[in-house]
Amino acid sequence: MKPFDQQNHYEVFDVPPDATPFEIRQAYKASLEIYGDDAMATYSFFSESERKKILCRLEGAFVTLMNQKSRAEYDQTLIGGGDLEEGARYKGVPRKPIPLFELKSSRGIKHVTSGPSRPQPLEPSVMPLVHELLAHQEITGNDLKKIRTELGVSLDRIAHETKVRTALLRSIEEDRFDDLPSRFHLRSFLKSYAQCLHLDPQAVAKKYMHRTQP
Amino acid sequence: MARIWPIGGGKGGSGKSLFVAGLGSYLAKAGKETLLVDADLGGANLHTVIGIPHPARTLSAFINRQVHTLEETIIETGHPNLFLIGGARDSLEIANLPYAQKVRLLRAIYKLPYEYILLDLGAGTSFNTLDFFLLSNCGIFVTTPEPTSVENTYHFVRSAYIRKIKQVLTQEQLRAFRQHPKAPWKRPAVLVDMLRQEAPEGAASLEKALKAFRFKLVLNQFRQHDDVRLGLQICKVCEKHLGLQMHFLGNIRFDDRVHYAVCQKVSFVDKYPYTQAALDLRAISQTILGMEGYQAKTGPKKAIASSPSPQGTD
Fold first, then answer.
1. Which chain B residues touch A27 with a CB distance below 8 Å?
2. Does pLDDT of B95 surpass 80?
3. A135 touching B, CB under 8 A?
4. CATH code at A101-212
5. Where are the domains of chain A?
6. Cβ atoms of residues A168 and A181 within 8 Å
């Protein structure tokens, strides 16, 4: 690793060169917790003047990177110095979220700093079977089961997450309408089931309920 | 070949001996032949922590040449796979070990046929402690989330670092740096940088030696409202500003029952195996067991032969 004095703004903050302003702000906050006045992590490590110098350096880097214009200029000097490639710089748009079901194969997972994961719409290229089944007017219990198996989620896992009994979930998947609870409860269970698989809860519930119409 | 894990950390009372005892028990329970060495010369008490009030033979027997080999001082602890070399208690001058004796002891430790050798070091940054610590690249720092302890740990890290630099550099290079007007002595990063310009081959060997370090950090006596990020932050600072790789092993929860176990002179992890502190220790032992890929040793002869005289000026 380069000595601290020679690191560029991105290396100082430990962020990739295409980090979003949000990520840079988070990194700046994290650095302040390390080098700040009351920080225990660097207690006695630096002399007071050294620490002040580092704080100035951090602030300078932060101000430069938060301003779109100055950041572009700074990137340009880095590119000029050969420290940054044109393709790797920030282009004003955040990196695309990683398709949910490719998380395992993704290389960029380390830098994902967004909050709790929200269900993203499935991309057709990822799971053709799932999309085909979801495109139908109606969804049967068997369809749900197929989708669930395709995504590799066990029934117990869903039961654990949704707090709905496994037996009941199985009844849903096997279309045993007599064993199912009232329509009100069924809809809510279907929604949780769909949410668990990151499917659209409204659509799934509606398409399934469609067949149980009295 | 044994993996040697020196456990140090600068401040007294941070739980080094208890950590050694706990870690040793778990390694032994995992079926690894483990030897605990009480290398706290002049302040030995590891035997008490694992429940052996009076070890029959200790390090001093080896140092005073009452026995011929270090193996003869090893005693059984009553736990399967776990062995101990007790620290010297009967000699009051042993804390100031002469240089030749120290080299003899370090070499003997190297040759011991155990899978894991844990060295319990004393507080402070005396040359003896540092040399024991630098016996291997996998030293573990034990610290607590308190400013005093963090301060001592940084002092220890820097001292070990400087000690290593001294081992690698030649006498002339050392003298030149000591008299340098910019006084790079206190700032290792600057030192390596200057060395790179003035003596590239020296810098290369120094960088290699520093890169070989795989230091570990443990935060002990972690209380409920302490900042969980502290350990990682300390590692990050060491890596960023000293260029030292440091790996955070985890927090160990504070537990009053540790005190009771010590008072009863029994092993804490056996007496209270399901406390959070014991579980944390077990998790750390599993991490260490998982680190099979590490090269635990440097060449013993070279490292020791090139170490400077302990009487040398500093």
1. none
2. no
3. no
4. 1.10.260.40
5. 4-88, 101-212
6. yes
* DSSP, res B69: S
Say how many residues make up chain B.
314
Task: Answer yes or no: CATH 1.10.287.110 is held by domain A4-88.
Answer: yes
H helical segments located in chain B: 16-29, 46-49, 59-63, 99-110, 127-133, 147-168, 171-178, 188-198, 200-211, 230-242, 256-263, 268-271, 276-290, 300-305
Q: Residues 1-60, chain A: which have Cβ within 8 Å of B?
A: 1, 3-4, 14, 33-34, 39-45
**Which chain A residue shows the shortest CA-CA distance from B146?**
A40
Share of chain B above pLDDT 90, in %: 40
Looking at per-residue confidence, does A104 or A87 come out higher?
A87
User: Does the beta carbon of A93 lie under 8 angstroms from any beta carbon of chain B?
Assistant: no
Rounded to whole angstroms, the Cα distance separating B222 from B144 reads: 7
Residue of A nearest to B231 (CA): A41
Give residue A133's identity as a one-letter amino acid code: L
**CB of B284 less than 8 A from some CB of A:** no
> Looking at the predicted complex, does its ipTM rise above 0.85?
no
Written as one letter, the residue type at B193 is D
pTM of the model: 0.71
Residue B121's nearest CA partner among B137, B102, B139 is B139
- Searching chain A, which residue's CA lies closest to the CA of residue B190? A3
Q: Tell me, what's the pLDDT at B182?
A: 64
Q: Identify residue B303 by its one-letter amino acid code.
A: A
Phi, psi of A120 (to 5 degrees): -100, 150
Nearest residue, CB atoms, B243 vs list A1, A42, A43 = A1
| Minimal Cβ distance to A4: which of B147, B154, B241 | B241
Query: Residue A45 and residue B193: Cβ atoms within 8 Å?
Result: no
